[in-house]
Amino acid sequence: QVQLVESGGGLVQAGGSLRLSCAASGTIPSINTMSWYRQAPGKQRELVAAITSGGITNYAESVKGRFTISRDNAKVTAYLQMNSLKPEDTAVYYCNFAPTYTSRPGTYWGQGTQVTVSS
What we know:
Layout: E1 2-7, E2 10-13, E3 18-26, E4 33-39, E5 46-52, E6 57-59, E7 67-72, E8 77-82, E9 91-98, E10 108-109, E11 113-118
């Protein structure tokens, strides 16, 4: 079992920045993928960014150049630095953990953190 605790959401004006954190605990395999997904009202949940325990990253086209995913393997914590935020980035952001290298969502989800970008 893996537990995920997210933090760092909030309200910010367009052009501003936020940093999300996701701390994983429990039985953590050395090979894993931590990802951020988001879901806006009335829309499907979508991948924002992912990072493997080996440091390989993947981003949605809509956030490339603005968002940066990173991780601290010793703390089993993933971060999402979000810069140049736009109103269309408004969503609930969810951390995801998969006990393998994968581009698909894993079994474990965080509780979600709201990000609201005002125009």
